Amino acid sequence: MKKLYFTLNKVSNVICKILSGLIVAVVIINAGSVLLQILNRYVIVKVSDLSFPWTEELSRYSMIWLCYLALPIVYREGSMAQLDLIFDRLGRKGKMALYILTRILCLIFIVIAVYFGIHVVRTRIMFTSSMLHAPGYMLYSAPIFGCILMAYEIVTEMIGVFSGILEPFYAGEKRQYPDVKKGEEV
C-alpha cells in the first residue's frame, strides 16, 4: 500500500505543478482583463470610441476557473479551513473514525457534484457566452474538473493515512512538494 501511495503522490506532484502553472496563467489573464476594463472605463473611452465589453465576462469566468483549479492544491497542502475543536479531543481511534467519516462524506459530495455538473454541462452544451462566444462546456466544466482532481487528492491522502505514512487531519503538513524545504514558499 505504501508503494501505491508513493506512486499516486508522484502523479499528484506533477498534477499540482501543472495546476500551479495554469493558475499563474489564469491570474495573469484575470489581472490583465480587469486592468483593461478599468483603462477602458476611465481612459480609453474619453479619447476614442473603442470598447472592450468582453473584459468583464473574461474576468468573471477566469475567477471561477481559478477557484476550481486551486481546489486540489489547497486540499493537498492542508490549507482548507477546518474546525479542530472535536478531533483534537479524540484519541487515535476516534480521530481515525472521524477522518474516515469526513472523507467518505467528501467523496459522496464530490460524486454528486460531478454527476450534476455533467448534467449541467449537457444541458448548456449549445450555450455560448454573450461577449466571448465561449462554448458552454468550457464555462460550466470548471466544477467537474476541480472536483475530480480533489477526489484524486482525497484518495491519495486516504491511502497515505491507511498505510501509516500520513496522520489523519495533518496530512497536508507532510504532503508538500518534494523539492520544497520546510519554511520555503512554493
From TrEMBL:
Principal location listed in the UniProt entry: membrane
This protein's record includes keyword ATP-binding: no
Compartments reported by the entry: Cell inner membrane
Membrane topology qualifier: Multi-pass membrane protein
UniProt-listed InterPro entries: DctQ (IPR055348), TRAP_DctQ (IPR007387)
Pfam families: DctQ (PF04290)
Transmembrane segments: 12-38, 58-75, 96-118, 138-166
Protein name as it appears in the record: TRAP transporter small permease
Origin species: Schaedlerella arabinosiphila
